[in-house]
What we know:
The complex is a heterodimer of chains A (about 350) and B (about 425).
Chain A: H1 2-10, H2 14-22, E1 24-27, H3 35-55, H4 65-74, H5 79-106, H6 115-137, H7 142-155, H8 162-170, H9 177-209, E2 223-226, H10 227-252, H11 278-286, E3 290-291, E4 294-295, H12 296-312, H13 314-317, H14 319-322, H15 329-351
Antiparallel strand pairs in A: 1-2, 3-4
Chain B: H1 2-26, H2 31-38, H3 46-49, H4 54-57, H5 62-66, H6 75-78, H7 94-102, H8 105-108, H9 119-125, H10 127-133, H11 142-146, H12 166-174, H13 177-180, H14 189-195, H15 197-204, H16 213-217, H17 230-234, H18 239-246, H19 249-257, H20 261-266, H21 296-327, H22 333-351, H23 358-417
Amino acid sequence: MASLDWIRKRFPIEPFEKLLRKKEVPVYRSNLFYYFGGISLLLFGIQVFSGILLLFYYSPHAGGAYESVRFIMNKVQFGWLIRSVHVWSAHLLIASIFIHLFSTFFMRAYRFPREFTWMTGVFLLMLCLGFGFTGYLLPWNELSFFATKVGTEIIAGVPAIGKFIQTVLRGGEEVGDATLGRFFALHVALFPMMVTGLVLIHLIFIQFQGMSTPPALENKTLKTLPFFPNFILRDCIVWSLTLGLVLVLAVYCPPPLGAKADPFAPTPQGIRPEWYFMWMFQTLKMLPGHILALEGEQAALLVMGILGAGLLFIPWLDIWTRRGKRYSPLTYLGWVILIYMIFTTILGYLHS
Amino acid sequence: MKITYGYFLALFILLAPTMVLAENGEQKKNSCVECHKLIDDENGGVVGLMAHDVHAQVGLSCADCHGGDPSSDDIEVAKSPQKGFIGAPKRNEIPQFCARCHADPNYMRPFNPNLPTDQFSKYQTSEHGKRNAQGDDHVAVCSSCHGAHGIRRVNDPLSPIFKRNAPLTCSKCHSDPEYMKAYGIPTDQFEKYKKGVHGILLLEKGNLGAPACHSCHGSHEASRPVETSVGNVCAQCHTLNRDLFAASPHKKAHDQMKVPECAVCHENHFIQKTSDDMLGTGPGAICLKCHKQDSNGYHSAKAMRGFIEDLKGQVSQAETAVVQAEHIGMDMSDSRVELDQAVTLLTKARSYVHSFSPPKIESITKEGKTVADHVKQAAKTARAQWVTRRKGLWVAILFLILLAAGLFLDIRRREKKS
């Protein structure tokens, strides 16, 4: 490694190399899921890179946002590709984080000593959903405008603070120029800063604590693989294939821009959120008007809030795993929730 | 303190008469209403009808039209000619009866300064008015259309003369063969109008921009348009077509033949949605009604239709090309704008048929074809870009596969070594 020697002569990188070489990756049937953390990292990198390129031309004003996206797609050299890659990479990023989170959950990798690694991961998922929600409005087209209107109306249903959050997000009573400005600021400044910080913490934790093995395999002697360079090189193969997938989707299925948002037009038919919010949307649609003393929507938001908080504190809530039990009822509950999410998502698409 | 009491006293003295007047105003006696309420059914419920009447709404009472003294309970006094009682006017006196106020600008101004006061003079020039003056008491008078009691404002959707209701109101007499027998005019106008493009728009779709009977015939001045002025009637909306027609050789010919301009091709009440088939020499072509085969008009009609068909084909091809490019995921929004321009030029060419000038239509269609060609070219370029993008993609994919394969071989080499 002549290049590394060149660096070693100039910088004291030995401690980092030692840290990288220290980590071992267990080899077993399900270790394919270990790659989804790396895939998410690559996709986040693509998002940052393509996002910066889009920023060169994007105009965050209701009067020019749509036109600037159209300009990027039609006039800027490879602009169509950059936007398409940004959109598809965002979809795949959220899908990858979901897979990463659920695989970590089912393998109970959140248990001691990785509680905080889990928590940073849950925060990262929430931030990425925030990225999706804020980014969806930025092209200022009909679909995104009304989906944001509906989305922020749902937020207003949160008991006590909902209306306040809605006003802060919208920057007023209605979705308009102020909303676009706020969503833009969150999307390109606050969220990237927070995600970068959390990703670094997440990676440092993983690097120090190593890869987790499922409880069932904990007492078995597993073959291991050095993280550096063997696993990293495998990661590179997966990254190449992921990049290929992003490019194929970007070229073959470019996201349409649709019609420009018209705040005075009636809400068009078939307004729906992005696929990752569909299960929540469908749940809200299916609920009755009132559940006990609460409105149906408020009750659903309350349950979702409890589930979100439960997800965050799962390392402490899973007392069965903490007591060293082989099976945890929470794992079965996780399967039920996952199946429910898939079912309601499909139902949502069938109904719309 | 004395000064303060003095002020209150003075104020009381000043306000007292107005208080008394207001009190009297609220309780003003109206013996017409009191009696007519009791005989309501016999009189068609006039008191009930007056609740919606525009005159009652602005504070006019029965006596303001019919005279008499509503403050008296004695019928002899209340309906005494000495008290100005007129009673119900005879049918053919109704226009003059209403005109006492409606033709007096000074009287009408306080109620609505913008309300016209020429209805009666216009009525006198109308067919209805002329016949009424001759003693024909079958013809329409004010109450025939507006009603007698319970008259609503023109813009009230429940008014019989609200634009959407007006054709039905006219048809009550004009579609009654028995009633119209003496006048020897057709009674199928409403049936035709209903099925025509204007009737469908107004009556079925509720488009108040579409014309009703009075839009062409006039309301108070209602009459049959003179043949040579039909163009002016249609021009109230179809201005460009009238101007083109007026400058065309057809205008002179129609005037000489005393045929009703636009109505010769488009009919009057049964106006159909126009189609390209009306032009040219094919089946359904109206031109053939007058122009014999191999005449100049025949050749002009054929040429004009040819130009329009040519542009229509080009626009259709351009649209197909745009749809195909969009279908493969290319953004064709700029081309869509251009395509709209081509469609506008096609519409313009169709309008210019009223100039009956093949060179003019040729020039417009030529412009339209240039735009359509540009759109087709843009769609072609988009398709070529689509191919290039895919080629580029597969080069990139090949590179990534090679990279992945190289990495795989490198891993194998390393793991074999260790």
